[in-house]
Amino acid sequence: MQLLSETVFLGAIASLIAGVATGAGAIPIFLKRDFTRRALDIMLGFAAGVMLAASSFSLLVPALEDPLVNDWTDVLTVVALGFGLGGLFVHLADKYVPHAHFEKGCEGPSSTMSRVWLLMLAITIHNFPEGVAVGVSFGVADPLTGISVAVAIGLQNIPEGLAVAAPLVREGYPRGKAALLALATGLVEPIGGILGVSIVSVAAFLLPYGLAFAAGAMIFVVGDEMIPESHSIENARVATWGIMSGFIIMMTLDNVFGFLFGG
User: What value, to the nearest 5°, has the Cα angle with vertex 16 and ends 11 and 19?
Assistant: First the structure.
């Protein structure tokens, strides 16, 4: 019971720290009022690359190595199923929760909410499965997996926070309010973190499903939102280099953690 409570506590704290990184990413708006679309696209591409690497190495690889996954039929019925359900979750949230994007405009059902709340809901839809990813990863026997995922989510949340706050300032919002709104979008992650780590701690057989679910949700977000948003205008090539850079850095960090602490 004590081990269970410690695991839940670690998952909750790690997801909270990762979520707060969204607010930290908004700090530059106090130093510079405006950021070019090119800079924001590069940073958003970087965040997408980090998420792709974390999904691959810190979520899907542990899911495939789980004792429940013994042959190709288990890959289909466990990992592939969980992966697909993760994507389906984000798809349904996108379809049935009213929200808005800076470039794509409003999506989901019509709503009378203000645009700023619709923009926040869009980021919240993405941040919840990220919190689940952090929480679920602490169910793996190797604690480095949880740390690696938490670092990855926190790392990608920093440019995401700036990508939220900078356009709000450009639309006339005070810098302090824009920073607080960016922080608020990340605070849903501890909720997802607690839910994820609690489920896999109580029902260990769900761990590979949970890992694959989190990976599927994150990759769906990358493919459906982050890459299209960063490639929406003439910055497609530099945004792609941002993706490459984020992937390389997260892949390297993941292995550095293993070498330093994995023995």
Answer: 125
Tell whether the model's pLDDT for residue 2 goes beyond 50: no
Q: Which residues contact 234 (CB under 8 A, 6 or more apart)?
A: none
Task: Report the distance separating Cα 140 and Cα 63, nearest Å.
Answer: 9
The pTM of the full predicted model, rounded to 2 decimals, is 0.86
Q: How far apart are CA 17 and CA 149, in angstroms?
A: 12
Residues 211, 136 contacting (CB under 8 angstroms): yes
| Angle CA 165–56–256, to nearest 5 | 85
Pair 121, 109: CB distance under 8 Å: no
129 — phi, psi (to 5°)?
-65, -25
CB 152 within 8 A of CB 167: no
What is the domain partition of the chain in residue ranges?
Answer: 2-261
Q: What is the pLDDT of residues 8-55, one digit of tens each?
A: 888 888 888 998 998 898 898 888 877 788 888 898 899 999 999 999
User: What is d(CA 143, CA 96) in angstroms, rounded to the nearest whole number?
Assistant: 36
Q: Could you read off the pLDDT of 97-115 as tens digits, one per residue? A: 888 776 667 777 887 777 7
d(CA 256, CA 51): 17
**Alpha carbon distances (Å) from 115 to 98, 100, 175:** 10, 7, 17
